[in-house]
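Q&A log
Question type: sequence-to-structure
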Amino acid sequence: MKTFFFLLLFSMSCTGFAQNNHIVKTEDGRRVLLKADFTWEYIDAEKSEDVPNNITVPNDLNSKENEGCNLTEDFVEPKLNKKIQAQLKRGRATIAYVKKKVAKDYNCDVANILLISFSEQKEKAVYHFCANGTKVTYKRIGNSIVKKDKFF
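Response status: OK
Response body:
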């Protein structure tokens, strides 16, 4: 009877490791599908149809970008809790990493991303940014950073 349960447990655990495809996360938070034929592809890949490759987006922060966000010239970004940011540093989810992700998504420099407001806790946070003249909202759950209202 013991042998039967041992063989049953062994065969069940082997089937778990015999999966063909694996999903892994990169350091910057993107998910990658590793296939059995030694190829891979991004699961979260987005093709931006808004900005063609041959058109450059102006990166001047003092130009028309602030008009879409309705910010004053003397606007100062709010201060974040240093203790929470220090804890998030290990998981690469600090505000600097969030700004890098927003800058990559909106094809601009990190210096052009302005934090307008936030609601932050250790486990989760919601950040409101001004990127290229548009208001965008990103959320953080644990160390994962995604655009709000976007599941995958």
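Response note: The radius of gyration is 21 Å.
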